[in-house]
Amino acid sequence: MIAIGCDHAGVEMKKEIIKALSEKGFEFKDMGTDGEPCDYPVIAEAVCGQILSGECEKGILICGTGIGMSIAANKFKGIRAALCSDSFSTKFTRLHNNSNVMCMGARTLGCGLGCELAEIFLTTGFEGGRHQRRIDLISAIEEKN
Ligand code: RB5
Asked: Which residue CA neighbors atom 7 of ligand 1 most closely?
């Protein structure tokens, strides 16, 4: 199950992603907004909560630029959120960072690219090995701060 959420800027992209990727077998839990203006940190918290509780394995967050969502999501211990706008970074943030949340900007990307990047994010596995050591170091920073 994938948790997905957006603020008012990202509603159309979110709908397109749910439609395109549901057809490919992915299941989504939509944490809002349905269109009403809202504050992106509230949605980031709802999506990250789904991952930290184990209800969902990954999350997708969309706002105007994706930046506010990524700043908010990375405040949660255990969340590794990546701002994605190209296929190389999207692929490698899964391979090397084991990112569990992707953030995208609906005002900076088209819906077609958003759907394509979401599919890359959801279908690429973590490479492990030396990259796990680096993620452990990130976790240690979280513990210390
Ligand atoms: C909302 O207008 C906008 O600030 C928000 O969607 C986002 O871009 C914040 O980072």
From this structure: 64
pTM of the prediction?
0.98
Task: Name the burial class of residue 113, with classes exposed (0-12), middle (13-18) and buried (19+) by CB atoms within 10 angstroms of its CB.
Answer: middle
Q: Ligand 1 pocket test: pick from 11, 43, 65 the residue with the most ligand atoms within 8 Å of its Cβ.
A: 65
Atom of ligand 1 nearest to the CA of 71: 10
In this prediction, the residues of the chain whose per-residue pLDDT falls under 70 are none
- 22: its two tokens: 């549901």
Which residues have C-beta within 8 Å of that of residue 17, sequence separation ≥ 6? 4, 60, 62, 111, 114, 115, 118
3-state secondary structure of 113: helix
Q: Which residue bears the tokens 């890359």?
A: 120
Determine the 3-state secondary structure of 22 from DSSP: helix
> For the segment 126-145, what is each residue's pLDDT rounded down to a tens digit?
999 999 999 999 999 999 99
Residue 8 annotated as catalytic: no
CA of 60 to the centre of ligand 1 (A): 15
